[in-house]
Structures are given as C-alpha cells and as structure tokens.
Design a protein that fits this description.
Mean pLDDT: 87
Strand content: under 5%
Strand order of the largest sheet: 1-2
Low-confidence stretches: 392-397
Number of strands: 4
Number of helices: 22
CATH topology of the domain at 299-417: Serine Threonine Protein Phosphatase 5, Tetratricopeptide repeat
Helix content: over 70%
CATH superfamily of the domain at 299-417: Tetratricopeptide repeat domain
Distance between the termini: 67 Å
Largest sheet: 2 strands, antiparallel
C-alpha cells in the first residue's frame, strides 16, 4: 500500500513540475537591477536560483563562524548531563557531599536547572543541612515551583517543624491541587503535628492516585487511622469518629485493634468485643486474636467459650492459645490457663506467654515457678536464652501439634496444621 502511495505522489510531483516548467517557458519573466551605474538583467527563474544559492552560501558561512561557539556550548551541555548523572548516582549511594557538588554544577545549564537543584536540595537535607536545602529550594522554585514546595515541606518536617510544613501545603490541599507526593507529605506532616483530621483527609486522594502502591498505601492508612483513634479524647468522640470512617477503613486490622483497645480503655468493652468478633468471623487475624485475649472486662465466660470454639478450627494457633490462657487467668482457672499457655509456648515461644504463665503460677500460689516464668519473659524480650521449666511440671501436657483431617471439594482428605 505504501509503495502505491509513493508512486502516486511521484506522479503528482512530476505532473506539477511539467506544468510549472511549461508555464515558465512561455514567459520566463524579466528582472533588472541597477545600482550606481551597474545594470544586471536576467530572468525571474535565474534570479530565484541566484537568491537560493546566495542564501545557502550565507547560511554555510554563518554556521562556520558559529561552529567554535557551538562546540563550547555542546561541551557544556555534555558535561552538565554527565554531572547530573554522577550527582544522582552519588545521591543514591549516600555520598551526599559529592552529590550536592555535581548537582550544583549541573544546574548551570538552564534545561537541567530545576531537576538538578531539587536533587541538590535533597542531598543537603540528607546531610542535615536543612537551612542550605531551603536556600537551594528558593532557587529551584523558579523552575519547578510545585515540586520545590513539596520538597520544602519534607525538609521542614525533617527539621522538626511539621507545623510549618503543614501550613505550606494546606492552601493547595484545600484546593485539591497537590500532587501525590504532596498528599503523602501532608499526611506525614499532619501526623507529626498531631493534626489527625488533616491526616485523615489525605487518605482519599492518595488512594485514588494509586501512587503509593497497595502496600505503601495500606501502611500509611494504618498509621493515620491508629493515630486518629488514639487521639479521641473520650468514648463519645471515639464512636463518632468510628462511625464516620468508610467501611473499608473500619475493616483494616490495625484500625480495629486500635479501636478495640481504645474503646475498652474508655469502658466500652461490649462494642470493642463486637468489632473484634465480627472482624474475626470475616477474616482470621493473629493481631486481633491477641487483642481479644488482652482486653479486660466483659463476660469472661462467654469470651472463653468463643475462644475455645475457635480452637476447634485452629488448634495449633499459638496466639489463640495465648489469648485463651489469658482469659483463663482473669477467670481464675489456673489449671486450664496453664495447659493453654504451655501448649502456646511449645508451639511458638513468646514473652507474653511466659508472663501469662507466671500469672497462672502466681494465682496458684507457686511463687518459685511464677518467678521463673517472669524471668523467662524478660529474657525473651531482651533476646536472651530462657530457662526451661522442670519436666515434672509439664510432663502431663501434650504439646505436639494436632493434625486435623479436612476434605476438599472433591472429597479428598488433606491435612492442615
């Protein structure tokens, strides 16, 4: 198809050239130039050709005269690009002094000025020279104002001035004119300044942008939600905040954990347990299971019954065994608490299980064993070796993992730990 188009185009050009030549041949025109007694006569076609040749010669001469200056300019651009690359590599490698030097030199080229100054300011900030970084950003704002504003807020936050960073970004945030990096910096500055309301407002635009990725956004969302929940001054404010959160945020395990612990602290044990149990019915979470066993108050007998019901499906879950053991300790069921806690320690040792086991021994009046358990809890928290319990104390407890037979959709048995 392209070949036929080229043939057609050449045919059209040839036809136009033939027509033009015929038209000029009939009357080639007449040009007369007279200057100080000089007379030049020629045809229009020849005059046009002469003018084109003169223009070509003048252009060649002009380029020849400019060549030395162009060579210097090309060398300057080449060196500036090399310095920019070297500076960025030095920045990534942590050689911040070298990075700032190379980037400042690269900024002398106008085309690279904005990006070089921004990277130079980042290098100065990482060196701890925040004042120097702010001076560089004042220059960078002329080439890249929005990026310089976001980076200025980051430098201010690193310098321990989150309130100033928040004030810098707030006007653009109110107009919804911040880039994704600006929204993230606003969230971090708001958290540092204790303004959880402003931090919560950043979650929606950050989620829509998708700039942080699923893992990055989830981590930031958890930080913001936990901070907002901890900032609630009383139970009424906490429930108001919780009810206003979107459903997806109320289902985040970190948020549920923080809400349950905060609500229980205000004496709202029933709502806390309801949230934990509803969340565990939707999706099993060791974090929420631990909170279920830690929280005090409520109907301990009913909570123990639910925990033991979950153990039928998760008999080898060390966190669930620890939760059941803690509930037994609060209920005064020392023997049952010991069984759950020793099995939890056999499956997955933890300082919390040792501490709870110490509480169980203390409740039974065995001060020596309680002291041994507390020492083990402290040693495990420090990363030190623990002292095993005497064999006669735990010999009757079966601490082997239980194998449960399950069948898949085809009826084939399978084992689950």
């Amino acid at each position: 198809m392209n070949l036929w188009r080229w043939i057609l185009l050449l045919a059209i050009v040839a036809a136009l050239a033939a027509f033009g030549w015929h038209w000029v041949a009939i009357d080639p025109g007449y040009v007369l130039v007279r200057l100080h007694g000089w007379r030049v006569q020629t045809t229009v076609v020849a005059a046009v050709v002469i003018l084109l040749l003169a223009w070509a010669v003048l252009t060649a001469l002009w380029r020849l005269l400019r060549w030395p200056f162009g060579a210097l300019s090309r060398r300057h651009r080449r060196l500036s690009r090399k310095r920019l690359g070297d500076g960025l590599i030095a920045l990534m490698e942590g050689r911040h002094g070298d990075a700032e030097r190379d980037l400042n030199r690269a900024s002398r080229l106008d085309a690279l000025r904005g990006v070089a100054l921004l990277a130079s300011a980042e290098a100065a900030s990482r060196r701890g020279e925040h004042g120097r970084a702010l001076e560089i950003l004042a220059e960078a704002s002329q080439a890249a104002p929005q990026a310089a504003r976001v980076l200025r807020a980051r430098v201010l936050r690193r310098d321990g001035k989150p309130a100033e960073a928040l004030a810098l970004l707030a006007p653009d945030a109110d107009k919804a004119a911040l880039p994704p990096g600006g929204w993230r910096e606003l969230a971090l500055s708001a958290l540092a300044a204790g303004d959880t309301r402003r931090a919560l407002a950043t979650l929606e635009p950050l989620q829509k942008s998708g700039a942080l990725g699923t893992r990055g956004y989830t981590a930031l969302e958890a930080r913001v939600l936990v901070a907002a929940i901890h900032a609630a001054p009383d139970g009424a404010a906490l429930n108001t905040l919780w009810s206003q959160l979107p459903k997806t945020q109320r289902r985040a395990p970190a948020a549920i954990n923080a809400y349950a612990r905060r609500a229980a602290g205000f004496g709202l044990v029933l709502p806390a347990m309801d949230e934990l149990e509803s969340a565990l019915r939707r999706e099993w979470s060791p974090e929420l299971v631990e909170a279920y066993g830690v929280l005090a108050g409520g109907d301990l007998a009913a909570r123990l019954g639910r925990a033991e019901g979950w153990l039928a499906d998760h008999p080898n879950d060390a966190v669930l065994l620890l939760a059941a053991g803690r509930i037994c300790v609060r209920s005064g069921l020392w023997g049952k608490a010991r069984q759950y806690l020793e099995r939890s320690l056999a499956l997955e040792p933890s300082s919390g299980a040792w501490e709870a086991l110490g509480d169980a021994h203390a409740g039974r009046g065995d001060a020596a064993q309680a002291e041994r358990c507390y020492r083990n809890a402290l040693a495990m928290a420090r990363g030190e070796a623990v002292q095993p319990m005497p064999s006669d104390k735990v010999g009757v407890i079966d601490t082997n993992a239980i194998a449960i037979e399950e069948r898949d959709e085809h009826g084939v048995p399978r084992l689950r730990g």
